[in-house]
Amino acid sequence: MAENEFLKGRGAQMNVHNRFFEHSHETRDDFLNYCAAEGDDWEDNKTVTIETFPKSIVNKVDSPDVGMGYSLNPYQGCEHGCIYCYARNSHEYWGFSAGKDFERKILVKKNAVELLEKKLRSRSWEAIPIILSGNTDCYQPIEKKFQITQNLLKTFLKFKHPTGIITKNSLILRDLDIIKELAADNLITVNLSITSLSEETRRIVEPRTATIKKRLQTLETLTNNNIPVRVMMAPIIPSINSHEILPLVKEIAERGAFGVGYTIVRLNGAIGQIFTDWIQKAMPDRAAKVLHQIESVHGGSLNDSRYGVRMKGEGEFANQVAQQFKIARGLYLKDREKPVLNCSLFEQQRDGQMKLF
Questions:
Q1: Which keywords does the record carry (predicted)?
Q2: What's the pTM?
């Protein structure tokens, strides 16, 4: 494919320079001309998995506005390709680009289950919910092959330890029986990401995720099985999905969600360059408007790193979004309570079996 051709089925349209590298790469015209003359593609668009064996797997989350204490990420990088994803920057720590590399070079943490079990057996560990995943989606497509998330859930069930899931993939229903067992002891909540009701929007903004129809069906299936589900409409992107707040909250309420959360898009680190390049190619007619509106909620910048402000933004547009969610919750989610996960069963199961004495 030509360098400037829109890459279908992927989010990022470019690789950006890794800030930790002294040298950068340039795709020269003479190289592209040579590839074209030879009939060769100048790059491979296939997804590559790379097996890794980290020393630890449970991460303490220090950010005060994230809403979780500990996270566990079985994969690094994400094939879903969501163009706005804040996790893209973390791929640079592994020596890759936050752009196309993030979607095509996926690190698989092969020893994740053993590391989790070791952590839960530690005498110093006290039960507190561990969330799958705080960074990249634990049910991205390669989970179907590697089944690491499935085995992590089995481990949480074995130890009667509270956990949570954040995903936008209907693959979660494969593990419905395990999740039902966890829910029976109030050991799990699911955060299902649904950013739009428009399949056209989903396809271009989140190219390799489950369809909107499948996500709504997933929500309904989970709640019909007494599994508590909160929907995340994250992020709100001005002039792309910002007009959908009330109809989306109405839809998810009718399908049993106990609550809804949101963030306003912020393009931190390399994501600003990646998103700007993408929207100028994907939505050239509204690119300038969207970028200016994003800047308007972050003090004139595409990003704001201040805790407590960065997720919700400031200014007129941010206030309008907040008011819409307030109205939507009052109309459709009134009196629905957030469950509190059970941390009392773990101590009896610390060794992986019920203590009798």
A1: Iron, Iron-sulfur, Metal-binding
A2: 0.88
